[in-house]
Amino acid sequence: MTKSAPNHSIHIEGARHHNLKDLTLDIPRDKLVVVCGPSGSGKSTLAFDIVYAEGQRRYVESLSAYARQFLPQMDKPDVDKVEGLSPAISLEQQTATRNPRSTVGTVTEVYDFLRVFYARLGKFYCPKCGKPIEAQTTDQIVKTILAMEEGTKLMLLAPLVEHQKGTHKDLFSKLKKDGFVRVRVGGQIYPIDEVPDLEKHKKHTIDLVIDRLVIKDGIKKRLADSVELALEHGEERMIVTVVGGNAPGDTFMSTLSTCPACKISMPRLTPQLFSFNSPQGACPTCNGIGSVEYFEPDLISPNKGLSLNQGGVIPWKSAYRQEQYGPQLKKLGKKHGFTLDTPLSDYTKDGWDALFHGCSETGWPGIVPILEYGQQQSGVWDHWTARYKQSTPCPACHGARLRPEVLAVRVADKNMFEFASMSIQRALDWLNGLNFTGQETLISEPLLKELTHKLGFMVNVGLEYISLGRNMSTLSGGEAQRIRLASQLGSGLVGVTYVLDEPSIGLHPRDNQRLIDTLRSLQTRGNTVLVVEHDEPTILEADHVIEIGPSSGWLGGEIVFQGPVDKLLKADTLTGKYLRGDIVIEPPETRRTPTDSIVIKNVETNNLKNLDVDIPLGVMTCVTGVSGSGKSSLVMDSLYKHLQLFNGNKADNPGKIGGIEGLDKIEKVISIDQTPIGRTPRSNPATYTKIFDEIRKIFTGSKEARTRGYKPGRFSFNVKGGRCEACKGDGQIRVEMHFLPDVYVTCETCKGKRYNAQTLEVEYKGKNIADVLDMTVRQAREFFANHPPLMRRLDVLSEVGLDYIKLGQAATTLSGGEAQRIKISRELGKRNLPGALYILDEPTTGLHMHEVGKLIRVLHALVDKGATVIVIEHNTDVINGSDHVIDLGPGGGEHGGQIVASGTPEEIIANPNSVTGAFLKK
């Protein structure tokens, strides 16, 4: 291959990272390039581990050693040469953001502009009476203070510094020179000479003590002078603090804004006031999270058929607990008609409430207060009791996250929470409909321009149905990725390489073209757009296609095609055959007819409009619909979470439903997603599927192991005994390099085999335990052909298309599609599955067209064993391969939430109202 000029392409030589087989290739710059191929073939390795990581690593290395210590270190990929790199930005599918403070508005930085918008253009309305708030005069403030009860001790303070970093030594020196004696720093009063040194990088709040007074006759003149002085130093703001007794704390007063009827003074409008991540703006009850946790009796006592003596209250299963509270509980039972042997299901409602929340007449504090008290005393207790807690919207702010004073600020007819709760499209329409006059016109113009631009980009990527206040943890991987894509559109960068991971995931075929147009706009601006993708329309729109294969894992890692789309359509590759129609995924010859179902009644979760939904049992059901139509709200929030609660498991924020009929027909519910099967290299397919247990039994039964008295634990690399202690069974040792990325070197003692020499001396059919872990599933099936229990598990891995993975392959190196199929294989390994309900959300993520066909067959195999399978999916082959389809819509967000069509795929196609049916027909 001739080497292209670096300014026209990204030139890669000798790429051997993971399973790549010494690849040399050119990726054209300033083009839309799609990388496709089977799951686990090496697509993400090429795009993310080489192109993105190397570009990022070189940028970081150009910085000083001091700056590098604050940045994440990128591992150097195993590649000989990479030329023609430009700065790279990665847009991956990051679904598992656990930060409860992360919302769509904060991630897109729209919230930053919104805070300034409300601080500069908002108007106060009284939180109590709703009337507009007017400025308060100095005389009115004096009158309000004098109206306090005689003898009240109070302090007048002037707020000087609010949550600002620095030592503030100059400020203290100036105050001392001006004759002031005391200050309050972080709530603590100090003489100015004795203020401790403040940490430079911490935020501090400083208030100046103006005067200390007692309400009595004859203090009016002194009070008036002190109020004027406080307002002067506090920039028209002051704090009145009542001292001693049941003091209400700080009362904020200002000549800027106060309600004449309710006497409520409001703080000065600043952008910080509108941040739920700032103490100034956050709701004090939930600290700006929007929800609070509480102890849920149904989680504390999931099996109500048990009595207290039988362990019906899980935290009190131990005899110690029963002895400790026994006398009090007997006294409580005498009043409410139960004994310690009465099943909890036989308690009266009053008895149940008294048991959990207390009874003053008998002196019983209640299970919930006892747990709450223990939680306050010990952080360990808090961790232990987390499984018994449920989260619910904050009772003070009702999920708004902000203080009442902040929610009292409105622009036109909306406060900040109401604006953030609207869909992006409605918010955009509302902004465009605003009219400002006079000075406000000049202030609003740049802010409205930024807000409408950023919201417009979100509409362009198909996210018009979500709201700015939505928590990022509730978004699908595709939605989260498109939000970051919208942010990049707004940045206006050129000369950048954007690397995207399946941006079409979560998008209905109807919305695909908008996404492709967005990628095109990035590319035409002068950027290279490198997309890992399986979506047919996206592949067909590419300027250049790189197909990696021919198969997965160690059978992949080669370039089977690279070039323009018209040549791919003629190529003899797996993707080419599917695009031409040489290979198609055929629907099943017959559809199963359901004989039973469960019914979810009156579903009003998120945008669902009071639906009654029949979920057929014993068949494969596909829930589909345009993006934002309510699929996850129905299946995950309404069905799955309520089934979890029914089974005594924790489920945060379950959806709003009237009830579920037919719960007795479901014995267990399992959600199979694409999260890794383990977070460390110690977890692998063999350990996860319990194959390793069988293998260790076989080695334990060998003649050499019996002679030495070895037990199965001897062949585990996770415990002392048989493992190599030099590397603790990891096979490699991490060497810290400080300013360079950490280096992992193969353990010199065991040579990467994980076990000590004595353990490796035990062989079965000429192979030791390390040799077996290095086998692929295909090799293991041949090697252990005479062991039926082990063969059954290996056959299932082969059935789901994972013949090529190694038994000991680290979980961290498996793709999302591979991890999901390993989870399915573990379920398929069970003999019968009646009463089992499996839920899969977008299972085709990361799967090539060829693997989608295998996935459909595997899901039908689960149904053949008596299970029910529910799939949330947009892929037309999966929809067409289902027995039953529930199509939601007709639009997204507030325009969705209804059942457009329900029935077999043929019935969906025949329904003229179904957008999905139109794409199925094609």
TrEMBL record:
Q: Name one GO molecular function term.
A: nuclease activity
Output the Gene3D superfamilies linked to this UniProt entry. 3.30.190.20, ABC transporter ATPase domain-like (1.10.8.280), ABC transporter ATPase like domain (1.20.1580.10), P-loop containing nucleotide triphosphate hydrolases (3.40.50.300)
ABC transporter domain boundaries:
593-921
Location(s) in or outside the cell: Cytoplasm
Q: Which UniProt keywords apply?
A: ATP-binding, Cytoplasm, DNA damage, DNA excision, DNA repair, DNA-binding, Excision nuclease, Metal-binding, Nucleotide-binding, Repeat, Zinc, Zinc-finger
Coiled-coil residues are: none
Which superkingdom does the taxonomy of this entry point to?
A: Bacteria
InterPro entries in the record, alphabetically? ABC_transporter-like_ATP-bd, ABC_transporter-like_CS, P-loop_NTPase, UvrA, UvrA_DNA-bd, UvrA_inter
Major location, coarse class?
Answer: cytoplasm
Q: What is this protein called?
A: UvrABC system protein A
| Native species | Pseudodesulfovibrio piezophilus (strain DSM 21447 / JCM 15486 / C1TLV30)
